From TrEMBL:
Pfam families on file: CIA30 (PF08547)
Domain of life: Eukaryota
Name the record gives this protein: NADH:ubiquinone oxidoreductase intermediate-associated protein 30 domain-containing protein
Family membership: Belongs to the CIA30 family.
GO BP annotations, alphabetical order: NADH dehydrogenase complex assembly
PANTHER family: COMPLEX I INTERMEDIATE-ASSOCIATED PROTEIN 30, NAD(P)-BINDING ROSSMANN-FOLD SUPERFAMILY PROTEIN
Amino acid sequence: MAPTSHLPLFGGVRAWSQNDWTSSDDRVRGGSSQSELTCSASSLIAKFHGTLDIKTLGGAGFASQRTRGEDRTWDLSAYDGIELVIDSADGKLYTLTLKDEILPKRPDGREQSTISWEFDFRAQGRRTIFVKWSDFRATYRGRDKDDAEPLDLKRIKRFGIMIRSFFGDQEGAFALNLVSIAALRTERYLDEPDDEYIDDFLYEKSAAEAASSEQAGGRRGWFSWLTSCIL
């Protein structure tokens, strides 16, 4: 069974471009982490890499890349979720983020906080992950926002890829190599483990992955909210 519709967003048949992305690291809050997204029109892979520092902010730290432009909007209402095709990774826990609202900047030039929609994932080696809309959780300043309005799929304003330290659980060099990010529509969701389509599109986080996400979420602490206003 194949997807009924596949919309390339970044990579794949649409070449990766560094002009689409910019860094949002903890340096804006006095930290020392740094990230890059290395890619070119001639390459099929975009490399999200850098260094995650936990010393400057006392155990906290984050590094991220997000899409540029406040006037960009993606209408993904005809799709069922996001497909990530990963070429290779280091086994660390990463976060895919979406935003459907970007407020005007404050007088000091910093962005106002808005709700982020997050999905944590861990990858090592080549892997394809399908993230249903219901897999994203709403957060505000790093805390779950259970009463958030549904994600406005007609007005996706920003994509982001982030790595957090989770107070020392992760630090140092990191690297995530991405083949593509796309929107996907399927005929139906598949839960049967023997279905051949599951080999190509993974619909559920593993138990270990979910446990890692839950454990890490409990240690987000004060530093997590710092990321919400800039991703």
